[in-house]
Amino acid sequence: MTLSRKFCARCVQRRTVLLPKLVTYIGTSRISQTSCVHYPKTVRVTTYPDIKTRLAQTNFKSKKLFNIPLTAQEMRKPWEYPTQVDQYAEWKHKRWYDILYRKWVETCPKPDRDFTITRKSKRDILFQAENVRELLKLYLDRFHNKKYVIESFNFEFPAPNISYYYQYLTHTKYVHGMPFNIEHAPVDEKHLNSLREFVNDRLLLRDHEMRSTEQNAFTKRKLDEKLMTETISYLVAILSSSNPQLTSCEIDLKPENSMFWLRGRGFLKWTLPEDLPVAYQCHDTPLIQIRTSEQLPEFTPRLEEMSCSGGIPTFHTTPHVFRRPLVKYRNTITPGYRPNGGDIDPNYQHALDADKLEELSPPIYNPHPYGHTQLSLLPIHYSRDWYNENMEHCDITDEIDEHLKGHGIMSGWVWTAAQAHYAGHWMDKDITQPFCSQNIVTDGQFMSFFCYQLNTIAIDPDNVDDNPYRNLCYGKTDVKLYEENTENGVIEINDEALKMLIKFVSNGKSIQNNVEATEEEILEHDRKLIVQEPDIENPELEHQMPIQKVRTAELKRLAKEKQEQEEYEKLPYRKKLTKMIGMS
Question: Residues of the chain with pLDDT > 90: what percent?
Fold first, then answer.
Protein backbone atom coordinates (compact mmCIF):
# COMPACT_ATOMS: atom_id res chain seq x y z
CA MET A 1 0.00 0.00 0.00
CA THR A 2 1.31 3.43 -0.92
CA LEU A 3 0.27 6.90 -0.02
CA SER A 4 0.03 9.51 -2.76
CA ARG A 5 -0.42 13.20 -1.98
CA LYS A 6 -1.11 14.67 -5.43
CA PHE A 7 -3.88 16.37 -7.39
CA CYS A 8 -6.64 14.10 -8.48
CA ALA A 9 -7.34 14.00 -12.23
CA ARG A 10 -11.09 13.58 -11.65
CA CYS A 11 -12.17 15.79 -8.79
CA VAL A 12 -9.15 18.11 -8.94
CA GLN A 13 -8.83 18.09 -5.15
CA ARG A 14 -5.72 17.68 -3.10
CA ARG A 15 -6.26 14.66 -0.89
CA THR A 16 -4.43 11.68 0.46
CA VAL A 17 -5.30 8.66 -1.66
CA LEU A 18 -4.84 5.07 -0.63
CA LEU A 19 -3.98 2.99 -3.72
CA PRO A 20 -3.08 -0.67 -3.91
CA LYS A 21 -0.41 0.18 -6.49
CA LEU A 22 0.70 3.01 -8.72
CA VAL A 23 -1.32 3.13 -11.95
CA THR A 24 -0.34 5.29 -14.89
CA TYR A 25 -2.80 6.16 -17.59
CA ILE A 26 -1.80 7.28 -21.04
CA GLY A 27 -3.35 10.50 -22.12
CA THR A 28 -4.42 11.82 -18.72
CA SER A 29 -4.27 15.44 -17.75
CA ARG A 30 -1.01 17.23 -17.18
CA ILE A 31 -1.93 17.81 -13.49
CA SER A 32 -1.37 14.25 -12.42
CA GLN A 33 -0.73 10.77 -13.76
CA THR A 34 -2.71 9.18 -10.89
CA SER A 35 -6.40 8.97 -10.24
CA CYS A 36 -8.45 8.76 -6.99
CA VAL A 37 -10.35 5.58 -6.34
CA HIS A 38 -13.75 7.00 -5.50
CA TYR A 39 -15.57 3.75 -6.03
CA PRO A 40 -14.37 0.23 -5.59
CA LYS A 41 -13.90 -1.10 -9.14
CA THR A 42 -11.33 -2.91 -11.23
CA VAL A 43 -8.48 -0.70 -12.50
CA ARG A 44 -7.77 -0.85 -16.29
CA VAL A 45 -4.44 -2.41 -17.23
CA THR A 46 -2.07 -0.08 -19.17
CA THR A 47 -1.41 -0.72 -22.84
CA TYR A 48 2.31 0.00 -22.54
CA PRO A 49 3.47 -1.21 -19.12
CA ASP A 50 7.13 -0.17 -19.30
CA ILE A 51 8.84 3.07 -20.31
CA LYS A 52 10.79 1.47 -23.19
CA THR A 53 7.68 0.39 -25.07
CA ARG A 54 6.02 3.73 -24.35
CA LEU A 55 8.94 5.70 -25.77
CA ALA A 56 8.89 3.49 -28.85
CA GLN A 57 5.49 4.97 -29.77
CA THR A 58 6.67 8.56 -29.62
CA ASN A 59 7.97 10.68 -32.49
CA PHE A 60 10.23 8.95 -35.00
CA LYS A 61 12.95 11.53 -34.38
CA SER A 62 13.72 10.08 -30.93
CA LYS A 63 17.50 9.99 -31.10
CA LYS A 64 17.78 7.84 -28.00
CA LEU A 65 16.27 4.71 -29.57
CA PHE A 66 16.75 5.42 -33.28
CA ASN A 67 20.19 6.97 -33.39
CA ILE A 68 21.50 4.69 -36.13
CA PRO A 69 18.69 5.15 -38.71
CA LEU A 70 18.42 8.88 -38.01
CA THR A 71 22.16 9.33 -38.50
CA ALA A 72 21.93 7.46 -41.79
CA GLN A 73 19.04 9.70 -42.88
CA GLU A 74 20.95 12.87 -42.07
CA MET A 75 23.94 11.66 -44.08
CA ARG A 76 21.77 11.12 -47.16
CA LYS A 77 21.16 14.13 -49.41
CA PRO A 78 17.57 15.33 -49.80
CA TRP A 79 17.51 14.66 -53.57
CA GLU A 80 18.45 11.01 -53.03
CA TYR A 81 15.05 10.12 -51.59
CA PRO A 82 12.83 8.32 -54.09
CA THR A 83 9.67 9.93 -55.40
CA GLN A 84 6.60 9.23 -53.27
CA VAL A 85 3.93 6.89 -54.60
CA ASP A 86 1.34 9.65 -54.85
CA GLN A 87 3.72 11.84 -56.86
CA TYR A 88 4.22 9.57 -59.86
CA ALA A 89 2.87 11.16 -63.03
CA GLU A 90 2.77 10.62 -66.78
CA TRP A 91 5.46 13.27 -67.27
CA LYS A 92 8.53 14.07 -65.19
CA HIS A 93 7.79 16.80 -62.70
CA LYS A 94 10.21 19.63 -62.22
CA ARG A 95 10.25 19.06 -58.44
CA TRP A 96 8.78 16.80 -55.76
CA TYR A 97 7.88 17.38 -52.13
CA ASP A 98 9.97 15.70 -49.43
CA ILE A 99 7.59 14.84 -46.57
CA LEU A 100 10.34 14.22 -44.00
CA TYR A 101 12.22 17.49 -44.54
CA ARG A 102 9.12 19.41 -45.67
CA LYS A 103 10.85 21.00 -48.63
CA TRP A 104 10.75 20.90 -52.41
CA VAL A 105 13.48 18.89 -54.12
CA GLU A 106 14.51 19.34 -57.75
CA THR A 107 14.35 16.26 -59.97
CA CYS A 108 17.24 17.50 -62.12
CA PRO A 109 20.39 15.36 -61.72
CA LYS A 110 22.69 16.77 -59.07
CA PRO A 111 26.27 17.21 -60.32
CA ASP A 112 29.37 16.68 -58.22
CA ARG A 113 31.24 19.54 -56.65
CA ASP A 114 33.94 19.47 -59.34
CA PHE A 115 31.42 19.64 -62.20
CA THR A 116 32.22 22.22 -64.87
CA ILE A 117 31.33 22.56 -68.55
CA THR A 118 34.79 23.89 -69.38
CA ARG A 119 36.33 20.40 -69.05
CA LYS A 120 35.09 17.49 -71.13
CA SER A 121 36.04 14.96 -68.45
CA LYS A 122 33.91 16.71 -65.81
CA ARG A 123 30.63 17.22 -67.68
CA ASP A 124 29.52 13.61 -68.20
CA ILE A 125 26.42 14.24 -66.09
CA LEU A 126 24.92 16.12 -69.07
CA PHE A 127 24.18 12.71 -70.57
CA GLN A 128 21.83 12.01 -67.63
CA ALA A 129 19.51 14.88 -68.55
CA GLU A 130 16.15 13.44 -69.58
CA ASN A 131 14.67 16.57 -71.18
CA VAL A 132 15.59 20.01 -72.48
CA ARG A 133 14.86 21.75 -69.18
CA GLU A 134 17.36 19.60 -67.27
CA LEU A 135 19.97 19.95 -70.02
CA LEU A 136 19.78 23.74 -70.09
CA LYS A 137 19.78 23.93 -66.28
CA LEU A 138 23.00 21.92 -66.03
CA TYR A 139 24.63 23.51 -69.06
CA LEU A 140 23.79 27.17 -68.39
CA ASP A 141 23.17 27.66 -64.67
CA ARG A 142 26.39 25.94 -63.58
CA PHE A 143 28.70 28.34 -65.43
CA HIS A 144 29.46 31.36 -63.25
CA ASN A 145 32.46 32.93 -64.98
CA LYS A 146 32.32 36.03 -67.12
CA LYS A 147 31.67 35.91 -70.85
CA TYR A 148 32.11 38.08 -73.93
CA VAL A 149 28.95 39.56 -75.44
CA ILE A 150 28.99 39.54 -79.25
CA GLU A 151 26.61 41.64 -81.33
CA SER A 152 25.12 40.15 -84.46
CA PHE A 153 25.64 43.47 -86.27
CA ASN A 154 28.38 45.86 -85.20
CA PHE A 155 29.26 48.55 -87.74
CA GLU A 156 31.63 50.19 -85.22
CA PHE A 157 33.87 47.11 -85.00
CA PRO A 158 37.38 48.55 -84.46
CA ALA A 159 39.07 46.23 -86.99
CA PRO A 160 38.39 45.46 -90.66
CA ASN A 161 37.15 42.13 -92.04
CA ILE A 162 34.68 41.32 -89.28
CA SER A 163 33.22 38.43 -91.29
CA TYR A 164 36.49 36.49 -90.87
CA TYR A 165 36.31 36.95 -87.12
CA TYR A 166 32.71 35.75 -87.02
CA GLN A 167 33.74 32.78 -89.14
CA TYR A 168 36.21 31.84 -86.42
CA LEU A 169 33.70 32.29 -83.58
CA THR A 170 31.07 30.08 -85.26
CA HIS A 171 33.34 27.65 -87.17
CA THR A 172 31.63 28.67 -90.41
CA LYS A 173 32.72 28.60 -94.04
CA TYR A 174 31.31 31.48 -96.07
CA VAL A 175 30.27 30.84 -99.68
CA HIS A 176 29.50 33.62 -102.18
CA GLY A 177 26.27 32.75 -103.94
CA MET A 178 23.12 30.75 -103.33
CA PRO A 179 22.76 26.95 -102.95
CA PHE A 180 21.49 24.84 -105.83
CA ASN A 181 17.88 24.42 -104.66
CA ILE A 182 17.49 28.21 -104.18
CA GLU A 183 19.26 29.17 -107.42
CA HIS A 184 17.17 26.78 -109.53
CA ALA A 185 13.86 27.08 -107.68
CA PRO A 186 10.95 27.94 -110.03
CA VAL A 187 9.11 31.26 -109.62
CA ASP A 188 5.49 31.54 -110.69
CA GLU A 189 4.88 34.65 -112.81
CA LYS A 190 1.47 35.06 -111.22
CA HIS A 191 3.02 35.31 -107.75
CA LEU A 192 5.76 37.62 -109.05
CA ASN A 193 3.27 40.08 -110.59
CA SER A 194 1.10 39.99 -107.49
CA LEU A 195 4.07 40.70 -105.22
CA ARG A 196 5.29 43.52 -107.49
CA GLU A 197 1.92 45.29 -107.31
CA PHE A 198 1.76 44.79 -103.56
CA VAL A 199 5.25 46.19 -102.94
CA ASN A 200 4.58 49.13 -105.29
CA ASP A 201 1.40 50.07 -103.39
CA ARG A 202 3.09 49.75 -100.02
CA LEU A 203 6.06 51.87 -101.12
CA LEU A 204 3.73 54.63 -102.34
CA LEU A 205 1.86 54.51 -99.04
CA ARG A 206 5.16 54.57 -97.15
CA ASP A 207 6.32 57.64 -99.11
CA HIS A 208 3.03 59.43 -98.43
CA GLU A 209 3.22 58.74 -94.71
CA MET A 210 6.86 59.82 -94.64
CA ARG A 211 6.04 63.17 -96.23
CA SER A 212 2.99 63.79 -94.05
CA THR A 213 4.88 63.31 -90.77
CA GLU A 214 8.10 64.56 -89.29
CA GLN A 215 10.99 63.02 -91.19
CA ASN A 216 13.54 61.47 -88.87
CA ALA A 217 15.25 58.15 -88.27
CA PHE A 218 12.55 56.90 -85.92
CA THR A 219 9.75 57.55 -88.42
CA LYS A 220 11.71 55.82 -91.17
CA ARG A 221 12.38 52.84 -88.92
CA LYS A 222 8.71 52.49 -88.02
CA LEU A 223 7.59 52.64 -91.65
CA ASP A 224 10.27 50.15 -92.73
CA GLU A 225 9.09 47.72 -90.07
CA LYS A 226 5.52 48.04 -91.31
CA LEU A 227 6.58 47.55 -94.95
CA MET A 228 8.66 44.41 -94.32
CA THR A 229 6.17 42.83 -91.92
CA GLU A 230 3.31 43.23 -94.39
CA THR A 231 5.45 41.96 -97.27
CA ILE A 232 6.49 38.73 -95.51
CA SER A 233 2.95 38.13 -94.22
CA TYR A 234 1.56 38.63 -97.72
CA LEU A 235 4.09 36.20 -99.17
CA VAL A 236 3.15 33.52 -96.63
CA ALA A 237 -0.52 34.01 -97.47
CA ILE A 238 -0.17 33.67 -101.26
CA LEU A 239 2.44 30.85 -101.17
CA SER A 240 0.78 28.64 -98.54
CA SER A 241 -1.36 26.97 -101.23
CA SER A 242 1.72 25.72 -103.11
CA ASN A 243 3.83 24.94 -100.01
CA PRO A 244 2.07 22.72 -97.43
CA GLN A 245 4.83 23.54 -94.93
CA LEU A 246 3.43 27.08 -94.61
CA THR A 247 -0.18 26.08 -93.97
CA SER A 248 0.47 25.48 -90.26
CA CYS A 249 3.48 27.74 -89.72
CA GLU A 250 3.93 30.21 -86.87
CA ILE A 251 4.90 33.84 -87.44
CA ASP A 252 6.47 35.78 -84.57
CA LEU A 253 7.16 39.50 -84.42
CA LYS A 254 10.39 40.65 -82.77
CA PRO A 255 11.33 37.38 -81.06
CA GLU A 256 14.61 36.92 -79.22
CA ASN A 257 17.27 34.50 -80.41
CA SER A 258 20.17 33.95 -78.03
CA MET A 259 23.08 31.53 -77.91
CA PHE A 260 25.75 30.69 -75.35
CA TRP A 261 28.81 28.69 -76.43
CA LEU A 262 32.50 28.03 -75.78
CA ARG A 263 35.19 28.76 -78.36
CA GLY A 264 38.97 28.89 -78.13
CA ARG A 265 41.11 29.31 -75.03
CA GLY A 266 42.30 32.46 -73.38
CA PHE A 267 43.02 34.44 -70.25
CA LEU A 268 40.06 35.32 -68.02
CA LYS A 269 41.55 36.35 -64.68
CA TRP A 270 44.59 35.66 -62.55
CA THR A 271 42.90 33.12 -60.31
CA LEU A 272 41.93 30.80 -63.21
CA PRO A 273 44.09 28.71 -65.54
CA GLU A 274 44.96 30.29 -68.87
CA ASP A 275 43.83 27.29 -70.92
CA LEU A 276 40.12 27.53 -70.03
CA PRO A 277 37.65 27.88 -72.92
CA VAL A 278 36.33 31.37 -73.56
CA ALA A 279 32.57 31.80 -73.22
CA TYR A 280 30.52 33.87 -75.67
CA GLN A 281 26.94 35.12 -75.60
CA CYS A 282 25.00 36.63 -78.50
CA HIS A 283 21.47 38.07 -78.61
CA ASP A 284 19.72 38.62 -81.93
CA THR A 285 16.28 40.18 -82.39
CA PRO A 286 14.87 39.79 -85.91
CA LEU A 287 11.82 41.73 -87.02
CA ILE A 288 9.75 38.75 -88.17
CA GLN A 289 10.34 35.01 -87.91
CA ILE A 290 8.68 32.02 -89.57
CA ARG A 291 8.81 28.64 -87.80
CA THR A 292 7.36 25.34 -89.01
CA SER A 293 6.83 21.80 -87.74
CA GLU A 294 9.27 20.34 -90.28
CA GLN A 295 12.92 21.06 -90.91
CA LEU A 296 14.14 22.71 -94.07
CA PRO A 297 15.95 20.28 -96.41
CA GLU A 298 19.72 20.52 -96.38
CA PHE A 299 21.29 22.89 -98.90
CA THR A 300 24.21 20.56 -99.59
CA PRO A 301 25.06 17.02 -98.37
CA ARG A 302 26.61 17.02 -94.90
CA LEU A 303 29.12 14.27 -95.70
CA GLU A 304 30.45 15.77 -98.94
CA GLU A 305 33.35 18.05 -99.79
CA MET A 306 31.67 21.41 -99.16
CA SER A 307 30.82 20.53 -95.54
CA CYS A 308 34.01 18.64 -94.68
CA SER A 309 36.82 20.67 -96.27
CA GLY A 310 38.11 24.21 -96.37
CA GLY A 311 40.03 26.41 -93.99
CA ILE A 312 38.48 28.23 -91.05
CA PRO A 313 40.17 31.43 -89.86
CA THR A 314 41.87 31.16 -86.47
CA PHE A 315 42.59 34.18 -84.28
CA HIS A 316 44.19 34.10 -80.84
CA THR A 317 43.40 37.73 -80.09
CA THR A 318 41.38 38.33 -76.94
CA PRO A 319 37.95 39.83 -77.77
CA HIS A 320 38.71 42.52 -75.22
CA VAL A 321 41.00 44.06 -77.86
CA PHE A 322 37.94 44.58 -80.09
CA ARG A 323 36.10 46.39 -77.28
CA ARG A 324 33.87 43.44 -76.50
CA PRO A 325 32.61 43.67 -72.91
CA LEU A 326 33.45 40.90 -70.45
CA VAL A 327 30.34 40.72 -68.28
CA LYS A 328 28.51 38.29 -66.06
CA TYR A 329 24.78 37.64 -66.15
CA ARG A 330 22.46 34.69 -66.68
CA ASN A 331 23.37 32.51 -69.65
CA THR A 332 20.52 31.99 -72.12
CA ILE A 333 19.76 29.88 -75.18
CA THR A 334 16.51 30.66 -77.02
CA PRO A 335 15.51 30.03 -80.68
CA GLY A 336 12.63 32.53 -80.56
CA TYR A 337 10.53 30.74 -77.95
CA ARG A 338 10.85 29.23 -74.46
CA PRO A 339 10.74 25.52 -73.60
CA ASN A 340 8.28 23.88 -71.20
CA GLY A 341 5.67 26.61 -71.14
CA GLY A 342 3.74 26.76 -67.85
CA ASP A 343 6.13 24.52 -65.89
CA ILE A 344 6.83 27.04 -63.13
CA ASP A 345 7.46 26.62 -59.39
CA PRO A 346 4.25 28.22 -57.99
CA ASN A 347 2.12 25.63 -59.82
CA TYR A 348 3.55 22.83 -57.69
CA GLN A 349 2.86 24.58 -54.40
CA HIS A 350 -0.72 25.40 -55.41
CA ALA A 351 -1.27 21.78 -56.48
CA LEU A 352 0.14 20.51 -53.18
CA ASP A 353 -2.10 22.81 -51.15
CA ALA A 354 -5.13 21.55 -53.09
CA ASP A 355 -3.99 17.91 -52.77
CA LYS A 356 -3.97 17.58 -56.57
CA LEU A 357 -0.31 17.13 -57.29
CA GLU A 358 -0.97 14.08 -59.43
CA GLU A 359 -3.39 16.13 -61.58
CA LEU A 360 -0.82 18.80 -62.44
CA SER A 361 -0.99 19.71 -66.13
CA PRO A 362 2.09 18.92 -68.23
CA PRO A 363 4.12 21.76 -69.77
CA ILE A 364 3.23 23.16 -73.19
CA TYR A 365 5.71 22.32 -75.96
CA ASN A 366 5.94 24.45 -79.09
CA PRO A 367 4.54 22.54 -82.09
CA HIS A 368 6.69 24.57 -84.51
CA PRO A 369 10.28 24.23 -83.24
CA TYR A 370 12.16 24.48 -86.56
CA GLY A 371 13.20 27.74 -88.12
CA HIS A 372 12.32 28.55 -91.72
CA THR A 373 12.96 32.21 -92.59
CA GLN A 374 13.57 35.35 -90.59
CA LEU A 375 14.00 38.98 -91.63
CA SER A 376 16.15 41.44 -89.67
CA LEU A 377 16.19 45.21 -89.95
CA LEU A 378 19.50 46.95 -89.51
CA PRO A 379 19.82 49.25 -86.47
CA ILE A 380 18.19 52.64 -86.52
CA HIS A 381 21.53 54.44 -86.49
CA TYR A 382 22.81 52.52 -89.54
CA SER A 383 23.49 54.54 -92.70
CA ARG A 384 25.45 53.65 -95.82
CA ASP A 385 26.64 57.26 -96.04
CA TRP A 386 28.56 56.81 -92.79
CA TYR A 387 31.04 54.54 -94.58
CA ASN A 388 32.06 57.31 -96.98
CA GLU A 389 35.11 59.44 -96.29
CA ASN A 390 34.47 61.98 -93.54
CA MET A 391 36.22 63.68 -90.63
CA GLU A 392 35.96 60.52 -88.53
CA HIS A 393 37.57 58.02 -90.90
CA CYS A 394 38.64 57.46 -94.49
CA ASP A 395 36.61 55.74 -97.18
CA ILE A 396 35.57 52.33 -95.79
CA THR A 397 32.72 51.46 -98.15
CA ASP A 398 34.29 47.99 -98.58
CA GLU A 399 33.35 47.27 -94.98
CA ILE A 400 29.62 47.43 -95.77
CA ASP A 401 29.68 43.93 -97.24
CA GLU A 402 31.86 42.71 -94.37
CA HIS A 403 29.39 43.89 -91.76
CA LEU A 404 26.44 42.43 -93.68
CA LYS A 405 28.21 39.08 -94.08
CA GLY A 406 29.07 39.05 -90.40
CA HIS A 407 25.43 39.72 -89.56
CA GLY A 408 24.29 36.83 -91.75
CA ILE A 409 26.84 34.43 -90.24
CA MET A 410 26.09 35.29 -86.62
CA SER A 411 22.30 35.39 -87.03
CA GLY A 412 22.29 32.01 -88.74
CA TRP A 413 24.54 30.46 -86.10
CA VAL A 414 22.53 31.78 -83.14
CA TRP A 415 19.18 30.63 -84.55
CA THR A 416 20.18 27.15 -85.75
CA ALA A 417 22.49 26.33 -82.81
CA ALA A 418 19.73 27.23 -80.35
CA GLN A 419 17.35 24.91 -82.21
CA ALA A 420 19.92 22.11 -81.97
CA HIS A 421 20.24 22.57 -78.19
CA TYR A 422 16.45 22.50 -77.82
CA ALA A 423 16.51 19.20 -79.74
CA GLY A 424 18.70 17.69 -76.99
CA HIS A 425 22.18 18.20 -78.46
CA TRP A 426 25.28 19.88 -77.07
CA MET A 427 29.00 19.95 -77.77
CA ASP A 428 29.63 16.36 -76.62
CA LYS A 429 26.46 15.04 -78.29
CA ASP A 430 26.70 16.51 -81.77
CA ILE A 431 23.87 16.70 -84.26
CA THR A 432 23.37 13.88 -86.76
CA GLN A 433 21.56 15.87 -89.46
CA PRO A 434 21.87 19.53 -90.50
CA PHE A 435 19.71 22.35 -89.15
CA CYS A 436 19.02 24.88 -91.91
CA SER A 437 17.58 28.38 -91.83
CA GLN A 438 17.24 31.41 -94.11
CA ASN A 439 18.04 34.97 -93.09
CA ILE A 440 17.22 38.25 -94.80
CA VAL A 441 18.96 41.45 -93.71
CA THR A 442 17.72 44.80 -94.99
CA ASP A 443 17.67 48.52 -94.30
CA GLY A 444 14.43 49.02 -96.24
CA GLN A 445 16.04 49.40 -99.67
CA PHE A 446 19.09 47.13 -99.89
CA MET A 447 18.51 43.45 -99.10
CA SER A 448 21.02 40.69 -98.31
CA PHE A 449 20.09 36.99 -98.45
CA PHE A 450 21.80 34.24 -96.44
CA CYS A 451 21.25 30.47 -96.22
CA TYR A 452 22.84 28.93 -93.12
CA GLN A 453 23.41 25.18 -92.68
CA LEU A 454 24.46 24.03 -89.21
CA ASN A 455 26.56 20.87 -89.56
CA THR A 456 28.08 20.78 -86.08
CA ILE A 457 27.94 22.41 -82.65
CA ALA A 458 31.05 20.64 -81.32
CA ILE A 459 33.30 23.67 -81.76
CA ASP A 460 34.68 23.93 -78.21
CA PRO A 461 38.46 23.41 -77.73
CA ASP A 462 38.01 19.80 -76.55
CA ASN A 463 36.13 18.69 -79.69
CA VAL A 464 36.97 21.02 -82.56
CA ASP A 465 40.31 19.43 -83.45
CA ASP A 466 38.71 16.03 -84.11
CA ASN A 467 35.63 17.47 -85.81
CA PRO A 468 35.66 17.16 -89.63
CA TYR A 469 32.54 19.26 -90.23
CA ARG A 470 32.23 22.96 -91.04
CA ASN A 471 29.12 25.07 -90.82
CA LEU A 472 28.08 26.72 -94.07
CA CYS A 473 26.72 30.17 -94.86
CA TYR A 474 25.68 30.99 -98.44
CA GLY A 475 25.32 34.72 -98.97
CA LYS A 476 24.30 37.31 -101.53
CA THR A 477 24.56 40.95 -100.43
CA ASP A 478 23.37 44.36 -101.64
CA VAL A 479 20.35 43.47 -103.78
CA LYS A 480 18.29 46.64 -104.29
CA LEU A 481 14.56 46.31 -103.72
CA TYR A 482 13.82 49.54 -105.63
CA GLU A 483 15.84 52.35 -107.17
CA GLU A 484 14.04 55.40 -105.88
CA ASN A 485 10.70 56.33 -104.29
CA THR A 486 9.29 59.69 -105.51
CA GLU A 487 5.97 61.54 -105.52
CA ASN A 488 5.24 60.33 -109.04
CA GLY A 489 5.75 56.68 -108.14
CA VAL A 490 8.31 54.01 -107.45
CA ILE A 491 11.17 53.86 -109.94
CA GLU A 492 12.48 50.44 -111.03
CA ILE A 493 11.35 47.77 -108.59
CA ASN A 494 14.03 45.10 -108.80
CA ASP A 495 12.60 41.73 -109.89
CA GLU A 496 15.72 39.96 -108.63
CA ALA A 497 14.92 40.94 -105.04
CA LEU A 498 11.28 39.90 -105.46
CA LYS A 499 12.28 36.52 -106.90
CA MET A 500 14.68 35.90 -104.03
CA LEU A 501 11.92 36.70 -101.51
CA ILE A 502 9.57 34.25 -103.24
CA LYS A 503 12.24 31.54 -103.37
CA PHE A 504 13.09 31.94 -99.68
CA VAL A 505 9.52 31.86 -98.38
CA SER A 506 8.44 29.03 -100.70
CA ASN A 507 11.44 26.83 -99.87
CA GLY A 508 10.60 23.43 -98.45
CA LYS A 509 10.40 19.74 -99.26
CA SER A 510 7.78 20.29 -101.96
CA ILE A 511 9.99 22.80 -103.80
CA GLN A 512 12.99 20.51 -103.50
CA ASN A 513 10.98 17.70 -105.07
CA ASN A 514 10.06 19.97 -107.99
CA VAL A 515 13.71 20.87 -108.59
CA GLU A 516 14.66 17.17 -108.87
CA ALA A 517 18.39 17.69 -108.57
CA THR A 518 20.86 14.85 -108.25
CA GLU A 519 23.69 14.87 -105.76
CA GLU A 520 26.26 15.26 -108.53
CA GLU A 521 24.54 18.38 -109.86
CA ILE A 522 24.52 19.92 -106.40
CA LEU A 523 28.21 19.16 -105.86
CA GLU A 524 29.09 20.54 -109.29
CA HIS A 525 27.19 23.73 -108.52
CA ASP A 526 29.03 24.10 -105.19
CA ARG A 527 32.42 23.73 -106.88
CA LYS A 528 31.67 26.75 -109.08
CA LEU A 529 30.95 29.01 -106.12
CA ILE A 530 33.65 31.21 -104.58
CA VAL A 531 34.57 30.32 -100.99
CA GLN A 532 36.01 32.92 -98.60
CA GLU A 533 39.30 31.36 -97.48
CA PRO A 534 41.74 32.81 -94.93
CA ASP A 535 45.23 33.93 -95.91
CA ILE A 536 47.58 31.36 -94.38
CA GLU A 537 50.75 33.40 -94.92
CA ASN A 538 49.24 36.50 -93.25
CA PRO A 539 46.79 35.16 -90.66
CA GLU A 540 46.16 38.51 -88.97
CA LEU A 541 42.63 39.85 -89.23
CA GLU A 542 43.58 43.15 -90.88
CA HIS A 543 45.59 41.35 -93.59
CA GLN A 544 42.69 39.28 -94.94
CA MET A 545 41.45 40.11 -98.44
CA PRO A 546 37.76 39.38 -99.03
CA ILE A 547 36.53 39.17 -102.60
CA GLN A 548 34.91 42.60 -102.67
CA LYS A 549 38.19 44.22 -101.62
CA VAL A 550 40.08 42.29 -104.28
CA ARG A 551 37.61 43.46 -106.91
CA THR A 552 37.75 47.04 -105.67
CA ALA A 553 41.56 47.00 -105.75
CA GLU A 554 41.47 45.62 -109.29
CA LEU A 555 39.01 48.29 -110.42
CA LYS A 556 41.16 51.01 -108.87
CA ARG A 557 44.23 49.63 -110.63
CA LEU A 558 42.47 49.56 -113.99
CA ALA A 559 41.12 53.09 -113.46
CA LYS A 560 44.56 54.34 -112.57
CA GLU A 561 46.10 52.73 -115.66
CA LYS A 562 43.38 54.22 -117.83
CA GLN A 563 43.94 57.67 -116.34
CA GLU A 564 47.68 57.41 -116.88
CA GLN A 565 47.12 56.32 -120.47
CA GLU A 566 44.83 59.31 -121.14
CA GLU A 567 47.36 61.70 -119.64
CA TYR A 568 50.09 60.15 -121.73
CA GLU A 569 48.07 60.62 -124.93
CA LYS A 570 47.67 64.35 -124.19
CA LEU A 571 51.42 64.92 -123.91
CA PRO A 572 53.36 66.40 -126.85
CA TYR A 573 55.64 64.20 -128.91
CA ARG A 574 58.84 65.38 -127.16
CA LYS A 575 57.45 64.56 -123.70
CA LYS A 576 56.34 61.13 -124.92
CA LEU A 577 59.80 60.49 -126.32
CA THR A 578 61.36 61.56 -123.04
CA LYS A 579 59.17 59.14 -121.10
CA MET A 580 59.97 56.34 -123.54
CA ILE A 581 63.72 56.67 -123.05
CA GLY A 582 63.30 57.01 -119.28
CA MET A 583 64.28 60.64 -118.95
CA SER A 584 62.41 63.00 -116.63
Answer: 43
